[in-house]
Each structure stands twice: as structure tokens, then as C-alpha cells.
Amino acid sequence: MKRISLAEYVADYGQVNAAAALGVYQSAISKAIASGRNVTVIINDKGDVYAEELRPFPSQKRLENNTTNCCDRQ
Q1: What's the chain's Rg over C-alpha atoms?
Q2: Does a structural domain hold residue 23?
Q3: Any signal peptide, and if so, which residues (predicted)?
Q4: What pLDDT is attached to residue 58?
Q5: What does the longest C-alpha to C-alpha distance in the chain come to?
Q6: What global pTM score does this model have?
Q7: Taking Cα atoms as reference points, which of 55, 49, 52, 53 lies closest to residue 18?
Q8: In this structure, are residues 44 and 5 in contact, taking their beta carbons and an 8 Å threshold?
Q9: What's the pLDDT band for 65 if we cut at 50, 70, 90?
Q10: At a CB cut-off of 8 Å and minimum separation 6, what does 40 contact?
């Protein structure tokens, strides 16, 4: 099994081939690289290609004025 960054995979195979291997549009590959997303491409021993992304939890920032704390009941 080989693990490389999406940017490295694209440098080796190109955006169109990367998109085809991962089952997405080329524009998704371009946007992921441009925005600096932490995507790792995994190539298993059979040659199958898939990817995973490491993201912080929770991944979306909460709005300051729209948050409620479930434990702050009065």
C-alpha cells in the first residue's frame, strides 16, 4: 500500500487521470489542491486508488451570535 498527497499524485498522473481514478470531476481535484485541503491518495497492492481527507472536528466554525450551550439552562 502506498500513501501520497493528492498534489503528488496529480504531479505524477495529472488532474484528469486523478479525477477519473477517484470518481470525481477534474474541477474537484483542482479546487482541493488550490484550497490546500489535506487529501491523501492511497494505492493498494491491487492498484485500486482511493482517497481520504483529514479534517478537524467539528469541521465548520460555529457562528458566535447563533450558538447555544445545551448545559447553560436557567
Answers
A1: 18
A2: yes
A3: none
A4: 86
A5: 59
A6: 0.75
A7: 49
A8: no
A9: low
A10: 3, 4, 5, 6, 51, 52, 53, 54
Q: What is the mean pLDDT of residues 52-69?
A: 74
pLDDT at residue 54 in the model: 94
Buried b (16+ CB within 10 A) or exposed e, 29-41: beebbeeeeebeb
Other Cβ atoms within 10 Å of 28 Cβ, number? 14
| Count of structural domains, the chain | 1
Task: Tell me which residue of 10, 15, 40, 11 sits closest to 27, measured CA to CA.
Answer: 15
Residue 63 lies in a domain: no
Give residue 7's domain range: 2-53
Q: Which three cell numbers mark 3?
A: 500513501
CB atoms within 10 A of CB 68: 8
Q: Using 50, 70 and 90 to split pLDDT, how confident is the model at 33?
A: very high
